[in-house]
């Protein structure tokens, strides 16, 4: 049994898609912390942000992550801001190999598509917001991970192959 794998990175960098595929290929359990928060709160992330604020969302995110402290043989796709709380990073480091999926601003914007349900990107010029947030978060992602992979120019298949080769 291989160690758990946690995928971190900015929203729309491929964590959920790649995580599901890797879990299936490696016959591992799969957890998505954003989905866990939505299921627990019984409302969308956008509604949590609107109704309760980002701070409350981050508390729920940490709480959901703590429920995974004893999982084995699992892939965990983490919300993009999970690394903003050092206790989350410590827990992920204890239970998993952390893989940072880096994508360029243009790739993230392209993956975002017409989606308007990302609370941190609401308003004018989502691309500029992505750039600003990524500038702040990239050093935190890099400091938090065991392995960093630039998935900007990789297909899903090539990204999976790279991750499996490096873990």
Question: How is this fold's topology laid out?
Answer:
Layout: E1 4-8, H1 15-25, E2 29-32, H2 33-41, H3 45-52, H4 54-66, E3 74-77, H5 86-95, E4 96-102, H6 105-112, H7 126-144, E5 147-150, H8 156-166
Parallel strand pairs: 1-3, 1-4, 2-3, 4-5
Helix pairs in contact: 1-8, 2-4, 3-4, 6-7
Could you tell me the radius of gyration in angstroms? 15 Å
Give me the oligomer status: single chain
Count of DSSP-assigned helices: 8
Rounded mean pLDDT score: 90
Sum up the overall morphology in one term: globular
Q: Order of strands in the sheet with the most strands?
A: 2-3-1-4-5
- Strands, count: 5
Helix amount: 40-55%
Task: Describe the main β-sheet briefly.
Answer: 5 strands, parallel
Structural class: alpha/beta
| Low-confidence runs of at least 5 consecutive residues | none
State the end-to-end distance: 12 Å
Strand content: 5-15%
N-to-C SSE series?
Answer: EHEHHHEHEHHEH
Describe, in plain words, how this protein is organized in 3D.
- With 167 residues, the protein is α/β, with parallel strands linked by helices.
- Helix content is 53%, strand content 14%.
- The chain is built from 8 helices and 5 strands.
- It has helices spanning 15-25, 33-41, 45-52, 54-66, 86-95, 105-112, 126-144, 156-166, and strands at residues 4-8, 29-32, 74-77, 96-102, 147-150.
- The chain has a 5-stranded parallel β-sheet with strand order 2-3-1-4-5, sandwiched between helices.
- The radius of gyration is 15 Å and the shape is globular.
- 36% of the residues are buried.
Task: Describe the structure in brief.
It is built from eight helices and five strands. With 167 residues, it is an alpha/beta fold.
């Amino acid at each position: 049994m291989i160690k758990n794998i946690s995928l971190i990175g900015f929203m729309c960098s491929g964590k959920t898609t790649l995580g599901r595929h890797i879990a299936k290929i490696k016959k591992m359990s799969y957890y998505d912390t954003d989905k866990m928060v939505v299921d627990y709160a019984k409302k969308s992330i956008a509604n949590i942000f609107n109704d309760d604020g980002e701070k409350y969302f981050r508390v729920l995110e940490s709480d959901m992550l703590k429920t995974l402290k004893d999982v084995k043989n699992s892939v965990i796709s983490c919300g993009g801001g999970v690394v903003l709380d050092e206790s989350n990073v410590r827990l992920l480091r204890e239970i998993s190999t952390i893989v940072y999926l880096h994508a360029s601003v243009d790739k993230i914007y392209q993956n975002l598509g017409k989606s308007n349900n990302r609370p941190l990107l609401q308003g004018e010029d989502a691309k500029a917001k992505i750039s600003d947030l990524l500038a702040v978060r990239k050093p935190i992602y890099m400091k938090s991970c065991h392995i960093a992979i630039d998935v900007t120019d990789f297909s899903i298949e090539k990204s999976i192959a790279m991750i499996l080769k490096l873990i």
